[in-house]
Fold:
Amino acid sequence: MRRERTRLLIPIQGAIAVIAVLGLTMWPPAAGAMLLVPLGTGDANMAAKMALAGKAVLIGMGPFPGSLVVSGDRSRIADQVPYWKVLILAAPPAACGSAVGAAGDA
Structure:
């Protein structure tokens, strides 16, 4: 019985490690480029208005339908964007197209 529990620990620990690494890579930075993904019936216009109210700068469209790439301060944006309407993620340049790279170069 004890041996079976030990066999399960390694896959469980591996799964926890993978989830933790994915979570850390998607955690939005305190300031910089972020990806706003509207949830449910939300749209890009609503997300853009909320981001602009949080003093963010619109960079371009994100990789998901209705998503936006913005640059700004995470705490200001989060104050304006309810968590049940818009998901705020890190915006890695590889996933968000050339618009993020072009804005970062300027």
About this structure: The two ends are 62 Å apart (CA to CA).
